[in-house]
């Protein structure tokens, strides 16, 4: 029977640091306690033996500080697993939920680690934020399945770095981490249609925003969290999250454009819950804010909203309210105003224009717009956009025998598209 090898990471770190025996490490840890001002902390060889066992216990806070100081490595690289984490699940998403799980009832966001000792330099927050900025730009063009994996790993990296960072650098790092987790959640919800995973990721993002003491980031995260029950038709839950988002926005002295976006988010939720008149009132209020709010600086990370995107919200609400001529006019103007790199939003607008034509009993025009949307999806996948196209195809059922609808079916259910949809 093979002999258990135990915690080889701690053993290797001990030997690399020059402590040939468990007793030598125990003595070094005891001496370090005095140097770090922890008083008389006795570390026995028995304790070290337990740490080097096959199932090492999670060290107490003082012991963590001593191990990090003496061995010059973060606690996670010494073979210890936090008691609140699930190692198998940690490989799936930054919050421990598996990306293919529809209802993550048992998944919980990880609490952010407390800095035991400052190992990282003062520049760590700025350096991590620079990488986050690059991911923010990549989000708009890189395939979601590709950027999700790397962005989630970047977020996990940020969580690990928090354990080694203190002072002002920690606050800057936490803000960039909150932005990273928010982007991961946006991909999970809008691009991959994994709302349960997005909901959990957003809790971790809110924890990081709290660590950074950034109420405006907190407001952005809470408003995104409102989308999840809003799209599911759960009006009370969505309204509760929007109230929280508006409270944080007030604390953060939110600029006019941000406040208009909050109106747009709430309008989207109201639309999904069937309250289109309330939604149109909110959109009108948002338009007034943008018209009278003047030029105000918005955070760099707030790159998902503009007057054009507000008009896109408006066109969808007009469509759902049955105001077809107004919706058509609004969305055609949006289509003309969208920048060339806004491929994801263009897919949504084309899907809504197709839905307008289907509602107007014009299957030829509906299919033409749906085909345009599929052209955009072939460039950059966007699950929200594909949902729009599928809704259009369901609306076209009365014309299923017409050639234009059959051509759409051939495209919608080609080998490549069908397999891609199943994979997503």
General description of the model:
Among the domains are: 8-81; 121-213; 338-424, no CATH class. With 424 residues, it is mostly helical. It is elongated and about 85 Å long. It has 20 helices and no strands. Residues 84-107 have low confidence and may be disordered. It has helices at 8-16, 22-35, 45-51, 61-71, 87-90, 124-138, 144-162, 168-191, 195-212, 215-231, 235-251, 256-272, 276-292, 307-320, 324-337, 343-359, 363-379, 383-395, 403-412, 415-423.
Question: Can you summarize this structure?
Answer:
The protein contains 20 helices and no strands.
List the keywords.
424 residues; mainly alpha; 20 helices
Query: Nearest-angstrom radius of gyration?
Result: 26 Å
Q: Which blocks of ≥5 consecutive residues have pLDDT under 50? A: 84-107
Question: Helical stretch count?
Answer: 20
- The mean pLDDT is 88
Strand and helix order: HHHHHHHHHHHHHHHHHHHH
> How much strand?
under 5%
First-last Cα distance? 44 Å
Largest sheet: none
Helix/strand class: mainly alpha
Number of strands: 0
Helical amount? 55-70%
Q: Given the C-alpha coordinates, what overall shape results?
A: elongated
What's the helix and strand layout?
Blueprint: H1 8-16, H2 22-35, H3 45-51, H4 61-71, H5 87-90, H6 124-138, H7 144-162, H8 168-191, H9 195-212, H10 215-231, H11 235-251, H12 256-272, H13 276-292, H14 307-320, H15 324-337, H16 343-359, H17 363-379, H18 383-395, H19 403-412, H20 415-423
């Amino acid at each position: 029977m093979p002999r258990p090898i135990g915690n080889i990471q701690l053993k290797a770190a001990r030997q690399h640091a020059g402590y040939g025996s468990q007793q030598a490490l125990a003595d070094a840890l005891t001496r370090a306690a005095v140097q770090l001002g922890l008083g008389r902390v006795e570390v026995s060889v028995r304790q070290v033996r337990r740490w080097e066992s096959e199932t090492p216990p999670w060290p107490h806070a003082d012991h963590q500080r001593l191990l990090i100081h003496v061995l010059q490595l973060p606690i996670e690289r010494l073979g210890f697993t936090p008691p609140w984490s699930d190692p198998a699940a940690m490989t799936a998403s930054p919050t421990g939920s598996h990306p293919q799980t529809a209802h993550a009832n048992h998944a919980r966001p990880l609490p952010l680690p407390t800095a035991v000792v400052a190992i990282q330099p003062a520049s760590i927050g700025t350096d991590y934020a620079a990488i986050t900025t690059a991911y923010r730009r990549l989000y708009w063009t890189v395939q979601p399945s590709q950027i999700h994996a790397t962005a989630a790993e970047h977020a996990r990296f940020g969580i690990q770095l928090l354990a080694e960072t203190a002072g002002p650098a920690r606050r800057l790092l936490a803000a960039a981490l909150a932005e990273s987790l928010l982007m991961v959640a946006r991909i999970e919800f809008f691009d991959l249609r994994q709302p349960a995973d997005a909901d959990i990721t957003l809790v971790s993002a809110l924890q990081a925003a709290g660590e950074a003491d950034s109420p405006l980031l907190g407001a952005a995260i809470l408003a995104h969290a409102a989308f999840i029950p809003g799209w599911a038709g759960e009006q009370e839950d969505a309204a509760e999250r929007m109230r929280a988002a508006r409270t944080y926005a007030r604390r953060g002295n939110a600029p006019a454009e941000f406040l208009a976006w909050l109106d747009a988010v709430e309008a989207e939720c109201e639309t999904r819950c069937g309250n289109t008149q309330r939604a149109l009132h909110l959109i009108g209020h948002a338009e007034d804010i943008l018209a009278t709010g003047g030029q105000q600086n918005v955070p760099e990370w707030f790159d998902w909203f503009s007057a054009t995107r507000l008009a896109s919200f408006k066109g969808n609400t007009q469509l759902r309210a049955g105001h077809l001529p107004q919706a058509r006019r609004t969305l055609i103007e949006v289509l003309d105003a969208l920048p060339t790199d806004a491929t994801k939003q263009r897919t949504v607008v084309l899907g809504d224009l197709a839905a307008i034509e289907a509602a107007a009993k014009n299957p030829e025009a509906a299919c033409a717009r749906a085909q345009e949307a599929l052209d955009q999806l072939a460039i950059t996948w966007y699950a929200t956009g594909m949902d729009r196209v599928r809704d259009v195809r369901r609306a076209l059922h009365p014309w299923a025998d017409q050639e234009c609808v059959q051509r759409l079916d051939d495209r919608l259910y080609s080998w490549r598209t069908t397999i891609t949809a199943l994979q997503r």
